[in-house]
Amino acid sequence: MSTPSFIEQQFPVARVSAESYKERMAGAGSSQTLTGVGKWWGRKPLVLVRACLIGLLMPVSADPKRDREIFLKIMTMDEAGLWQRKNKAIDQETLEALLTEDEIKTWLRDENGHPKPRWGAGLTLQDRELVQRRAFDRLNYDEKLDYCLRPEQIEGPSPEAWEEINTHLGTTAKNLVQLVQQLGVRRFGHIARIGDPVCGGGSIPFEAARIGCASYASDLSPVAALLTWGALHLVGGDVKTRKRVREIQQAAYDATRKEIDGLGLESNDKGWRHEQLYYVVEAKSPATGLWVPLAPSWVISEKYKVCAVIRKNVDKGNYDIDIVTDADATTMTNAKKGTVQRGRLVCPETGNSYAIADLRGDRRVNGETVYGLRLWESSDLVPRPDDVFQERLYCVRWAVPDGDRIYSAPDAADLAREAKALALMKHYIADWQVKGYIPSRSIPRGGDKTEEPVRTRGWTHWHHLFTPRQLFMLGSFVKNAVEPDPTDALRVGAAAVAVGAALERLSRLCGIDSHISKGPGSTMNVFFNQALNTQMTFGSRRLGGIKRCLCGELTEAPIANAGSLVKLMDAREVSTESDIWFTDPPYADAINYHELTDYFLAWYEHLLPTAFTDWRFQNVVVLSVQGSGDDFKRSMVDIYARLARQMPDNGLQLVQFTHQNPAVWGDLGMILWASGLKVTAAWTISTETATGGIKRGNYVQGTVNLVLRKRTEQRSAWLDEIYPLIEDEVKLQLDSMTTLDDQSEPNFGDTDYQLAAYAAALRVLTQFADIEGMDIRHELFRERTGTEKSEFEKVIDRAVEIAANYLIPRGFDEFHWKSLSAAERLYLKGLELERHREARAGAYMELAKGFGVREYTHFYERSEANAVRFKTASEFKRQQLEGEDFASSLTRHVLFGIYETVREENARAGLDYLKTDGAVDYWGKRKTILALLAYLKPLAHIGHMPHWHEDAEAAERLAGAVENDH
Fold this sequence. Notes:
Layout: H1 6-9, H2 13-24, H3 27-30, H4 46-57, H5 64-74, H6 79-85, H7 92-98, H8 101-107, H9 125-137, H10 141-145, H11 159-169, H12 176-188, E1 193-196, H13 203-210, E2 214-219, H14 222-235, H15 239-263, E3 273-284, E4 291-294, E5 299-301, E6 306-313, E7 318-324, H16 329-335, E8 340-341, E9 344-346, E10 353-355, H17 356-360, E11 363-365, E12 368-370, E13 390-399, E14 405-408, H18 412-435, H19 451-457, H20 468-482, H21 489-503, E15 512-513, E16 522-523, E17 537-541, H22 547-550, E18 565-568, E19 580-583, H23 593-596, H24 598-604, H25 608-611, H26 620-623, H27 629-645, E20 652-657, H28 662-674, E21 677-685, E22 703-710, E23 716-717, H29 719-740, H30 750-765, E24 770-771, H31 776-781, H32 791-806, H33 814-818, H34 822-835, H35 841-851, E25 860-862, E26 869-870, H36 873-876, H37 890-904, H38 907-916, H39 922-936, H40 949-963
Parallel strand pairs: 1-2, 1-19, 2-18, 19-20, 23-24
Antiparallel strand pairs: 3-4, 3-13, 3-17, 5-6, 6-7, 8-9, 9-10, 11-12, 13-14, 15-16, 20-22, 21-22, 25-26
GO molecular function: methyltransferase activity
Domain DUF1156: 10-74
Protein name: DNA methylase
């Protein structure tokens, strides 16, 4: 085996997590580097990819603390690097909170002791920098990031840092690319070759190429291949390439703009231009027979108090819709109550409600649901007159030449423009579909996500998800972009990426967002929740509203290695060799990539083959590796066995996934084991944002990074040999982590230690070719009952138990800790989870599993999935004082003593309880009582645990009483 990599020994998870979170939160305003290329679910932060690659290439020395310092310098995550990245001034209010009184008096006050009129007044440049540095140094790491650029946004470490880096590593680099290439040559004999055969949104191959590696990428999905190609060639392209892309897109946009203006589709005879169109679906009320517009809310803009009001029109058999601007409070309140509530039509005349499913005519036949809507034919562009659901334009938001904005109900001219758009698309649809300018593809049936448009609207083809106006707008742009040369890959790629970006913001699925933060009102993105949700009301932007998408306002981030390769192929057929395979497979993933990407693929399928002639277009749905079941496991084994063969003996693999379920870990371990790989390390990095994100509810909000090598020896072992090895490995792993951890700024959280136990178990297991003669593939695919665990899972569970019992809370004496029961340890460790801001139910569940405690729900004060915490002493009150296990434990009695101290406002009450209650061996357990009270006292000073402050202060008073009781 070659020299271990830094990431196999340690990884600064806290700092990398903070940086990953900062990048995730950047959003459109601060421009994440690759999001402009197009939509992809779960695209990993580039800073995480960079940190992993550096960690894989960097060798370790005999000084792990110095290794960590050098790694942080390379990533500009050390103190000097953070100061170098600082690009925002700390404001005066924050300065005053961070500086001492003397410093405030010297720098922030005038000669009369009054605050200076503005920050920095009267200070030299040097003094201003000194003040900022003093304050900046007193911020914690996360707070410092608020004032810093991301690592990718600066050139790299300072010259002084490079001297230290080169001295430690024996390199001669002056920049990151040179360092990466020198480390690659040292480890592999050539510039490192990084491969990703399930490249998705392209983060891994892009970042690898940007920092100087030879990058290989492939995916079965044409959408993923296109996004990765776009990342490498459009974002990462040279000046000449980016200039040509901009010219192609701008010329196509200008031509489309000219066509739309010439047809008068977006303007009226007053010179007003559309900003946004608002549509509503209509259905007949069973009570009255009138066509009712189905709106969950009639509010258009909260900020400008714009809403719609409906009026019955018996002559027309429907409702007129008036638009009210600057509406009064009563009108706005009424407008929030639409005609659709909780999935039911509420008749405006009778108040009776009817299920939308009943309006559609859905019914049960032989135990199965039969949809009632007419299925649209390919030639349909709008509902037919006899369809259950109709569609209606009910509001136009105009931009007036003098800068004003006007909301109005559509008039006859507006409806004529809608009719013109429909007539145009009826004329062009057949020709444009043949040429690939608009979709012709049917929506796959039976999918979890793709069935939704069929069931709820009767739409059968992807172009049904767009209004005639939207189809004309996008189809015209594609035509104008690719028509000059449909075989030009750069031209076609630039057009496809542009349209792909626009598809997120322009379709019948873009619901109305009237929130006050949206000003005049906006539309939601199509995939606001990773599904294809049909909308009762939706908005449509004008051409200018998607210009930023069509004209490619992409981040410029040139890649260092221009020889990057992107292929369209199945990962099971990879023939390229890589030194490092770095993958983020759809393992146990909740996202149906193969279904959702079909929305985009429908626009690309006829364009890409003529330009990307070396790409093999295959059936994505049939061949896709989907996240569960035996077929999935077999596909995963085939992929990773293939990759193991396509790497040198000293090569490395890094597999990313997001899951904490031990059964998932067990299966993944067996998949990788069966593929001829062995685990060497695992680290969890927080990559999901706290709100929204990919996972909601009880999920790990982070990414596991599993490091592997090829298993080159055919060793065998017995289970009775394995368990002692795992116990030693778990303890060794935990000891190394606690030695490296920084008490003032913890590098590892509770779940990191738990994860380390999983990884330690996998490290031991996967180094053997077989255990007790078990056929690993047979064990992986063997059918088991719902409660039956594989031997693999049992071993992993044992590793977690070892870790739970081995990790002693800081400040708690080992002798006293080991005298406590499993339930007591669980309760106290649960408080430690809360101290570290861990509130996921899954973390507490795994902790309980580690201690072997089955019944612990009585500990919960709150049990919501992401807001879990245990009870305080006062919240327990007299509960759980009688019975077995925790109820009879010393910890429970100490908690009641604290409660008595609070209730009586006197520590004597608590002391008397502990001394007189027959269940407490006061004098025999006095030192353990003091240890428990000492553990609880600091909770008085934890800002995010205010519910503990009074009890913790009482614990301190009670501890004093016990201490002085002789």
